[in-house]
Amino acid sequence: MKRREFITLLGGAAAWPFAARAQQGALPVVGFLNGQTAAGFVHLTAAFQAGLGEGAFTEGRNVAIEYRWANGDRQRMRTLAEELIGLRVAVLVATGGAHLAAKAATASVPIVAGLGSDPLKFGLAESIKRPGGNLTGMSVVTADLEAKRLEMLHEAVPKDAEIGVLVDSNYVDLADQIQEVERTARALGRVARTVLAGADNELDAAFAKLSELRVGGIVVTGSPFFNNRRDRLLALSARFGGPAIYENREFTAAGGLMSYGTSLPDVYRQIGVYTGRILKGEKPADLPILFPTRFDIAINLKTAKALGLEVPTSILLRANEVIE
């Protein structure tokens, strides 16, 4: 090989890392903000990435993702949102209860959110079909499902037993959750005892109160705060010694009796799809807010046996997942 050719080849090889870095630096960046912990969301971030893949986006190849986790600390979410905005992200994904913090942090950066509350009620969108601003996403209809959870527990516990309802006192849809539960309890001829807990130091007292009330079962209402304290809530429920129903299957898989809620992998996949569409040039103002079509019922028969409870056939037949 001639000396000039060798130098040219060497120069080209030496330039490869610089070219690769330049290409990496040119990638659009997606900010992924979640109010909870990374450990419990591995399957959901995978679903989000799968949704991105439907738009031909792959992390590290043609898009970069910056993840931020608030680890259940509500106060950190606004700071983390602003930190991501400072990175000049092309899209801000707000999940795990982070949508309000994201919206408060920017009125211009496109936001794709998992919405646990009514976006119109909180001024996040002008309409469902045409949000009109910088935020769109998919609802997980948290408050609307409390009635279904209460109905399922109603089938599983003695008809004369009162039912306890644990509610996050800081949840934005607190009033709607309580209203749904009370309305449903009246329709079923049940007495519902609502107990509030919105901080770590209030959980033990809340379960002590439920035990004092001698309720026959507990509805743990939907809340990012509760979801981020799954193991502790399961331990407190076990100490309580009665049946409980939760928002998502992750509770049931970890030992809870049963759960009913929106299929979260579907939600995160759709958030990924919308993120890809915005990266390609569409605007959140024009992308309708979506509502789930799949809801998961999970039953843990091992837990039922430990509680001495026979799960009604009416529930087992509707279950998407039965853990034995």
Please specify the SSE layout and strand pairing.
Blueprint (H helix, E strand, L loop, with lengths): L2 H23 L3 E6 L7 H13 L9 E6 L6 H11 L4 E5 L3 H7 L5 E5 L19 E5 L6 H11 L6 E5 L6 H15 L3 E5 L3 H13 L4 E4 L3 H4 L2 H11 L3 E3 L2 H5 L4 E5 L1 H16 L15 E6 H7 L5 H4 L4 E3 L1
Parallel strand pairs: 1-2, 1-3, 3-4, 4-5, 6-7, 6-8, 8-9, 9-10, 11-12
Antiparallel strand pairs: 10-11
Helix pairs in contact: 2-11, 3-4, 5-6, 7-9
Summarize the structure.
With 324 residues, this protein is of the alpha/beta class. The protein has helices spanning 3-25, 42-54, 76-86, 99-105, 146-156, 174-188, 200-212, 224-227, 230-240, 249-253, 264-279, 301-307, 313-316; strands at 29-34, 64-69, 91-95, 111-115, 135-139, 163-167, 192-196, 217-220, 244-246, 258-262, 295-300, 321-323.
